[in-house]
Amino acid sequence: MQRFFCVFALCLALPAIAQHGNNNAPEVDNWIVIHAGQLLDIPGEAPRNQQSIIIRGEQIVRVENGFTDPDSLAEEHVELIDLSDQFVLPGLIDAHDHITARPGRVKRIWDTTASDSMRALYGAHYAKQTLEAGFTSVRNIGSIGESIYALRDAIKLGLIPGPRLQTSGNYLSVTGGHGDRATGFRWDLIEPLEHDGICDGADECRKAVRKLIRKGSDWIKVMATGGVNSEAQTGIGQHFTDAELTAIVDTAHSLGRKVAAHAHAAGGVNAALRAGVDSIEHGAFIDDESIRLFKQTGTSLVATLSVGDHVLQIANDPDSGMSEGVRIKAREAIPTMMDNVGRAYRAGVTIVFGTDSGEPEHGRNADEFLFLVQVGMSEMDAIKAATVNAAELMGVADSVGSIEAGKAADIIAVANNPLDDISALQQVGFVMQAGRVYKSIQQ
Ligand SMILES: [Zn+2]
Question: Which of 12, 98, 163, 335 is surrounded by the most beta carbons within 10 Å?
Answer without folding.
Answer: 163
